[in-house]
Every structure is written in C-alpha cells, then in structure tokens.
C-alpha cells in the first residue's frame, strides 16, 4: 500500500519506524477501502464518501472507510430488525455455541487485530495483544456461558389458582456506540451481552478508530445470521445522532465522553429509549502511610500510565499521605523514568503515542494551564528526545505537584498522561476531596490495614474500588460509574439483564378478585 501522509509538516518519523509500520499495515489491514456491514453485505455509504484511517505514529494512510449517513442508519436498523427475527428464535444453547465460535475465531486472529489497534490508535502492542484482545475474547466466552444458563424468574403463588412468573426478553435492535481508546475491546464489551440476550445490533465505532471493529465484524459475520450484527461507520454528529434517536432502536449503549453521554440521552429521550452509558472519570488513587510502597508504586504506574493515560479509569488524582509523600514520589518518578517510550509495534514499548496531534495539543494545554495556576512540574511535560519519533504525537508521562483539588487539572478529565499529586494528612478531609468531583467511575486504595481498606471502600463515591490493585478487569465484576460517569454496568451477569426488558405474567386458573 502506498505511503500517504495526512500532514507532512507534523509527521516526520525515522525511516526505520515508517518502514516497519508500512510492512505491518500491509499484513494486517484487510482492505484499502472498507464497506459497512449491513444485512450481511459489505456496502458503500449513501453519501458515496469515504474517510481516511491514519496510523497514529507515522501519519501514514492505513485504509479508507465509509462516511455513513442517517439513511445508512435506517438501512442498518431495518436489516437488524430482520436479523433479530433469525437470531432471537435460536435457543439459548444455540446462541451460546455461536458466540463461543466467535471467540475461537477471534482467538485465531488475535495478533492481526491487536496490530490494527497498535497502528491506528498507537497502543503498545503488548497491551493490545495481551490485555485488550484477551478481555475481548473472554467477554464473548463469558456471555456465551450466561446465555446458556439464564433462568426465568419464579414467584411463590399468591393462591392455589394463580401462577406468577417473570421473563426477560430482548429489546430487538440495540444501538451500540464505541470510543477510540480501546476499539477492539469495546466491540466485545458491547456486542457480547447484547447478542447473548438475543438482540440484533447496529454498531458505530469511533471515526478515529474503526479498522479493528470492521475486521472483528468480518469474523463475527461468518458465524451469525445475516443482520444480527451491522456496522455503520462515520461521524458521531451524523451516524451517532441518527442511531440514538432512531424509533426502531429499542436500547442504546454508549462508551464515550460525558458530553457524548448527554447528547445521547437527549436524543434517546425523543422515543423514551433506555440508555446505558460508560463515560468519563477523574479517579482518586489513595496511598495510606502503611501501604506496601513497592507494590503501590508499581500498581500506580498501571493506574497512571496504562494506555498513555487515555482511559476513563486513570488514577489521575494521586493522594499521598504526608508520612510517605517524599519516599513514594521519589520511587514513583524513578519507576516512571524507567518506562520505555517508543514505537507501539516494539514489544519493549510501555508508552506509545497519543491518538493524534489535536489530542496532543489538548494535553499540552492542560499542563500549561496547571503551571499557570501554580502547579510544579515534577517530571515530564515535554515530548521525548528521540529522532525516530520526531513529529509523532508522543508526550512523556507528566507528574504535577503543588496541586489544589479545585485546580483545573484536578477537576477536568485530561485523557492523557498527566497526573496530579496531592498531599494529605487528615482522612476525612482527604476523602471529601477524593469525592469532590462530578465523576465517580473508579478509585484505588493502597493499604495493608484491612480497616483502612474497608472504610475507604465504603466512603468512596465510585462504581469500582480497587484495593492493592488497579485496572483489574480480568475477573467478571460489575463495571460502571456513579454521578456523571455513567448509567448501568458492564462485564458481568447484571449486564445481560441490561440488554433485556422484564415481563411479568400472572395466570389465573380460578375466580376473579373482588373489586
């Protein structure tokens, strides 16, 4: 595939990096121009226009995909309605077997799909390969097992001549919208439970990262009935709005920014469509004076710098107790400095580039604002000095101290590798500051004292509390947010219920009740 740059003034990586990316792209990218999956067919958009998919590191064009329109959403919803008629009538065991087959086929393509996210998003390949795809494949297997074992509800009879029971039924067509920071993983987070519950889906990936979704859809389509899975690519302002406000969609689920969640709720309100939202975060990561310092430092490296901080759960506000503040911060800076920043395709890389230069500018702006408001730069705050990476949107992990909890950097989600460090001494004051945020997605606690752990877990206003671990999502447990971090839960058994609507049935075998 010929190398093509979206902005040659911004992108000028070394020849060895560019050539490596070209080679991997030629092996991993399936088509020079992708269609949209509608009703089992790969079709062009009603607009006749395509959008460029770009390598986050080199600026190289990877492929083109369709610029979808509301008319395409109409086609996809109609196809999904037909697909629902074929998919929903399958028995739970049959649906389970199909989803297990999807997992097996994705396992066979794991390396290829992981490399697509490393190219298009800049994810370190070791993360996309052994975290994102691992979780994605497991989600299909997990919800396949739940589809097979889901039971109908029963209630004790009110009288001998009455029977009351409940049953959970699929919505029909579910609209799913994903974010760019974990493209392949979010396909499974959204599709697996929706399909396991018997729904057909219309999926809209982020226009910043569509290739892994399209390749996963290619694999899924080989297994499921035509129309059970449909993918419409394009902008949120066109495709996303049309999907969330569509009268033929029975349920909407979105992963994205809080602003995107607000728009989704507004659109869905037109038809009173139920929504599930996984949104932003400004998560506290609290270190007690009795913590195992070495373990807490390594865990906080994961909390802070995994996926270059482009994660809603990032522990972006670190609360260090005054007794261990200096010792911990010194060790944390040293551990951060040991991270390998570089080409995401290099297996040694810990920290890859940001998604693009616009996002790099946003991250820089937040750091500049923090320094203007009185913060101290303890580490980072610049691009790495590496000629091979020049021009690519890299930014060193950045640690800021002398932060007030009301500062911009401590209140707003940066969505990048920028950490605010706050010192604490009084537990009640610290906890009040930890909870003083519009968000409530995740939190971390580091302590060897069980009473500290239990008290903090009770007091934190967050959907997830990790104690002596962080970003630990390999075991099924409910994941979702408090406050403006979202509505609903993902990753566990309750998610299956989120994609169904409950019906109550009462059968009367005797006389009617008195008026």
TrEMBL record:
Residues 1-30 are annotated as: Disordered. Keywords: Oxidoreductase. It comes from the Archaea. Residues 42-505 form the Aldehyde dehydrogenase domain. The active site is at residue 278. GO terms for molecular function: oxidoreductase activity, acting on the aldehyde or oxo group of donors, NAD or NADP as acceptor. Homotetramer. Belongs to the aldehyde dehydrogenase family. This is Aldehyde dehydrogenase (NAD+). It comes from Halorientalis persicus.
